[in-house]
Amino acid sequence: MSTVHIPFLQTGTLAVGGRLLDDAERSVQSHADRPSSLTKGHRACQGCAEALAARWVMDTAVEATDGRLVVANATGCLEVFSTLYPESAWKPPWIHSLFANAAAVATGIASSLHAQGRDDVRVLAQGGDGGTVDIGLAAVSGMFERNDDVLYVCYDNQGYMNTGVQRSSATPASARTATTPAVGRHPGAPQGTGKSMVKIAMAHEIPYVASATVADLRDLEHKVRTAMAIRGARYLHVLVPCPLGWGSQSSESISLSRAAVQSGIFPVVEARAGELTDVQRIRERADVEEYLRPQARFAHLFKPGGEDGLQRWRALAEANIRHYDLLGGRP
Amino acid sequence: MSDHDAPPTLGLSTGPATSLAYHTGAWRTERPVYVDLAPPCSLACPSGEDIRAWLGSTQEGEAGFEAAWRQIVAANPLPAVMGRICYHPCQAACNRGEVDEEVGINAVERFLGDTAIARGWALPEPGASSGRRVLVVGSGPAGLSAAYHLRRRGHEVVVREAAAQPGGMMRYGIPAYRLPRDVLAAEIRRIEATGVRIECGARVESLDEAQAEFDAVVLTVGAGVAHHVDIPAGAAAKIVDAIDVLRDVASGHAPLLGRRVAVYGGGNTAMDAARTARRLGAQDAVVVYRRTREQMPAHPTELEDAVGEGVRVQWLSTISEVSGPTVTIERMELDEDGRPRGTGEFEELDADTVMLAVGQEADLSLLAGVTDVEVRDGVIAVDPGTLMTGRDGVFAAGDASPGSRTATFAIGRGARAAAAVDAWLASRVLPAEPVLREATADRLTPWYYSDAPQQHRAELEAARRVTGFEEVLTGLDAEHAVFEARRCMSCGSCFECDNCFGMCPDDAIRKLGPGMRYEIDYDYCKGCGICAAECPCGAIDMIPEVR
Amino acid sequence: MREVLEGSQAVARTVARCRPGVVCAYPISPQTHIVEALSVMARTGELSACEYVNVESEFSAMSVSIGASAAGSRAYTATASQGLLYMAEAVYNAAGMGLPIVMTVANRAVGAPINIWNDHSDAMAMRDAGWLQLYAADNQEAADLHVIAFAAAEELGIPAMVCMDGFVLTHATDVLELATQEQIDAFLPPYSPAQALDIENPSTIGTMAGPESFTETKYLQHLRFLDAAGVIEAWSERFRKAFGREAGGLVARYDPDTLDRDGDAPPASAEDLAVVAMGSVVGTLQATLAPMRAEGLPVRLVGIGAYRPFPREALKAALGDSRHIVVVDRALELGAGGVLTGDVGRALAHTGSRIHSVVAGLGGRPILEASLRDAVRRALADELPALDFLDLKAGGVPEPPVGATEVAR
Fold first, then answer.
1. To the nearest whole angstrom, how far is the Cα of B13 from the nearest Cα of chain A?
2. Interface of A with C in 74-133 (CB under 8 A)
3. Nearest CB to B450; choose among A11, A29, A36
């Protein structure tokens, strides 16, 4: 990736910081005085990757805009755990209106700022997968199609976690949710369903589309920074493990993200104007089991009868690896 | 017009960061705590060096070199020597070996040692004078280490050495191609500069007299006497002790060995002897060893180096007879217990000289007639904690005392003996060496360490090697030494990578600034454990929360 | 300057002169002419410093307005019927957030069956959304009401709908006098949001309220809403003084004889039958009742200007001692009667009034003077039932013709 590459200093590009780094080489998150746009006291579950990703994204955007950032948030975990009146864990100006309309509210803000001659103030909209790929898709698509000057960030935890872990159209095949229980002949979410929001966004040919995870901070910061340097509609899709919904340990949110990328299950990409421009290669190839096994929602894949499902996951990883050349030509 | 003070409804807006009022720390069932664990390298280092610390200083580059060297000499006053001859058990223990290759600790140590010599860095000033005098008998690694550490504690130290030059086995047992003499001399001079007086050609004949002169005595006489085996030999047979050959070469009196040399034994001395024979003109140098390669006590790198220089090894073989230029060898086999036994099959080998390298013994003539200092299994018996012999005020360390016969072990024991002497002189109890928790490999998250193969030191070409005693292994330059140091994963000790700080979903970790590490804000930490899981070096424990 | 204008054009021009920062809409009949006109003005520069945003749905139209309003812009949108219902969630949200958005509702029936013509069932469905609802009797008032709506909404921090009958007003051409730019600039204070997404003073807008604070939040909203009556009245009065014509107000009074609008007209008396209505049917009633007055029949007309907040006191004052009421209602509460009738009934509770609900003009059915006259006469003769459907055809809807499938059988 075109991330600032950190020279070998005990750790390299993959750690948050490092005592041997120059200030200019440091990630936003490594600064003692980082913005902490989503600060302590929020009520996210232990190990919530969405809370983490939101701080990373917003801190980077705040730095990239020199603090001139306004945020529109869709209904969902992120909104609920951060703003139970009279408390707010946000530092930038922030608005929550509804579940399905974060993109449109953001458009309204951007339009207002433009009309006021305040194009220096930038707009970020964010929501979960439900608010993005399901109920909010029309508004997101509209914002894309109009090329409104908004960065839309989807924190994808692959289900309706706020309401008790129901299936969304981002729920992957065979995942157990409250509405796709792991019972019957085809346990879990049906095979062959689910939308690729990244591909949908690319199909709008907007200036910038990217995916990222909490397993690679610098990549994520790079993408937010890149996005904030561009005018028009931009989309960032961040995979955020949910210990509650995925049935994983709270300490595993980063390692699961890593396994998702290193197994080929979650391609980390960049696209401009509808064309794929960059792909994060697999560094240490992981088996899909490294990703699936720690998650109770996939437990049935490791019981008798689960072999087919497991095989389909392998096929998905292989297909991604081929399609995106995730191994970069390596065997 | 209104008769109430209701504000505009405003959709219940509120101020930024008002969530600080809500302390999520109450949710916690486990709490993260920062720990400092002992890295396997240091645990494996007989010299007791804080390897992780001095590699850490080296990582900073030029600015950290002297600090790094000072961290080494806090334990070992001979970094340039040990950076060459140590068999570096630290590297065998290094957790990085499970990631790619172990850190080349030894090479970095040599770099720092050589840099210190080149720049003339002095050892730390001795402490305030104690007014006590200590005699160290022998100037090998144990003696020099004991002398140095005693001097640091303010004692007056005299080292008496029977040989003409100080250094013990480092001078007389290890060939110059492994340890150039100027390096050894420089590091010994530096110890002398702290006020240690080394008297050479001064064999100590009487323990009683020594004790009359000094408040305490440390016996570090080494094991410089060759062990002998009885081999039927004809009159024309030329059988020499390998250790004597090495000593003669070191003293500048290289013997004539002939074109074909057989070396009997499988230890490092055997390897040194065979390699020295090649340098002295032997076209054929054969090591005859009773057991297998796996059982060989010589360090694998020594064997590799020897083979690289054309030395052959005859495995599972014993010399049964030497007659003139012919050596009779019996083939051996291993029994069920892995012990060699004769097969009754014999073969012959041409050899002008047979060098015996079947072990060395301590020269304990000093103790003749001394009844209260017990000699057991050929070495001086000591209290394992204090290294004191049966006689009050007489201590022993190094090859003449129990334990591994390596220079690094000798340095560590010399330091321990110094501490014991110091405690004894002050009538203090020497505290036991603490039991440390090890930073095991399973605690690490190696993902975060960059892919970085070891920086190998260049070796002299084999053809050039066998024609002289030029040093075989060159050193690292500063750039490569820093790189190598940066391969250290700092097992079990925070090196401020910012992972915990950056990856806390609850923003509950404070970064305290360079060198100050971090602080967990337990008012907000929910105890998710991400910091501990993603700490590259395993420096965070999760412990049950007790309320 | 008096000019001949279509209602939609009049509204669009007046809205433009109120200098909105963001106009955002999704097209739906019969609102289209308004937003078309605004989009043209945005392109020509007549509407300057304004973003015109074409969105993909009414839901987004209201959502964009929410964002724009919160970011500190005067925000405007327009819709009707299904569109209003499609944005319903955001309509409630805008009110809960206290964002003074102004929206024209070109009143239209709500399906099914789908019907593009006028009645009030769309706005009625949003009666509890927390918006002001101001109803225009004619196109002059429709245009003028927008000026008052922006002023009142922004003073209150409550969004306002200006309701005008679809087609009947939006597509009708009248001789009108529009408020000029200078007049509006002098009259309407610049938008100064009570709250805004401000990088200098960041705030969090739209928090979640738990059971411990939701009731109080709603109670405060209620108190605020009660303030609205006075604020609407005050701005209407200011408008009358500034422009020399009546518009807005809570309740419109009419001269007993000429039936001209007259704020100083006396209240109805005990012997009067009072006809209550809102929207364009008021004009039809003016034409219907004037001759009946001339005949000596005791009838009076009261118009509802502000449906939300419902002007209980102003209505009671205008009705005076009259206890016989006919409400002409353009929206049906199934199983009960006219929607407006319900509000009037609640306002007149414990007064012993007889109230008739005349449901008229659903789905664009023309409301004929003759039919109204007949209803009033029947009321005076005590022959009008409590609920009457004006011009209801006997026999219901026609049978569908025989289709191909049935022919084949």
1. 8
2. 79-80, 83-88, 90-98, 100-101, 103-117, 121
3. A11
Any chain A CB within 8 A of the CB of B544? no
Query: A122: distance to nearest CA of chain B, Å?
Result: 18
The mean per-residue pLDDT over the stretch A175-195 comes to 90
Q: Which residues of A touch B515 (CB under 8 A)?
A: 19
Residues on chain A touching C209 (C-beta within 8 angstroms):
85
Taking the C-alpha atoms of residue B42 and residue B88, their distance in angstroms, rounded to an integer, is 11
Give ipTM to 2 decimals.
0.96
Helix/strand/coil (H, E, C) string of B91-145? HHHCHHHHCCCCCCHHHHHHHHHHHHHHHCCCCCCCCCCCCCEEEEECCCHHHHH
A187 touches chain C (CB under 8 A): no
> For residue A308, what are the contacts with CB-CB under 8 A and spacing of at least 6?
none
Q: Which of B14, B19, B534 to mutate to test the interface with A (most CBs of A within 10 A)?
A: B19
Give residues 53 to 72 of A whose Cβ lies within 8 Å of C: 67-70, 72
| Chain C residues touching A79 at Cβ < 8 A | 208
Of the candidates C24, C50, C93, the beta carbon closest to that of A108 is on C24
- Reported as a single tens digit per residue, the pLDDT across C89-136 is 999 999 999 999 999 999 999 999 999 999 999 999 999 999 999 999
Determine how many CB atoms are found less than 10 A away from the CB of residue A100: 26
Computed from CA positions of residues B218, B221, B222, B227, in that sequence, does the dihedral angle turn out positive or negative? negative
Tokens describing residue A85 = 């009146």
* Contact across the interface for C98 and B8, Cβ inside 8 Å: yes
Provide the CATH number for the domain around residue A166.
3.40.50.970
**pLDDT single digits (tens) B40-71:** 999 999 999 999 999 999 999 999 999 999 99
Out of A8, A38, A91, closest to residue B450 by CB: A8
Tokens of A213: 């995870």
* pLDDT digits (tens), chain C, 409 positions: 899 999 999 999 999 999 999 999 999 999 999 999 999 999 999 999 999 999 999 999 999 999 999 999 999 999 999 999 999 999 999 999 999 999 999 999 999 999 999 999 999 999 999 999 999 999 999 999 999 999 999 999 999 999 999 999 999 999 999 999 999 999 999 998 877 899 999 999 999 999 998 998 999 899 999 999 999 999 999 999 999 999 999 999 999 999 999 999 999 999 999 999 999 999 999 999 999 999 999 999 999 999 999 999 999 999 999 999 999 999 999 999 999 999 999 999 999 999 999 999 999 999 999 999 999 999 999 999 999 999 999 888 888 887 766 666 5
Would you say C50 and C23 are in contact if contact means Cβ atoms under 8 Å apart? Answer: yes
What pLDDT sits at residue B7? Answer: 53
Mean of the pLDDT values across residues A247-264?
A: 98
Structure tokens at B104: 């080349």
Where does B21-36+494-544 sit in CATH, by number?
3.30.70.20
Mean pLDDT on B208-236: 88
Cβ distance A253 to A56 under 8 Å? Answer: no
CATH topology of domain B133-224+362-425: FAD/NAD(P)-binding domain (3.50.50)
Domain that holds residue A257: 23-324
The chains found to touch C (3+ Cβ pairs under 8 angstroms) are A, B
Per-residue pLDDT at B1 exceeds 50: no
The correct answer on CATH 1.20.120.450 for the domain covering B40-121+444-486 is: no
Q: Which of residues 420-479 of B touch A (CB under 8 A)?
A: 447-450, 452
Which burial class, exposed, middle or buried, applies to A186 when counting CB atoms under 10 A from its CB (0-12, 13-18, 19+)? middle
B53, two tokens: 């610390």
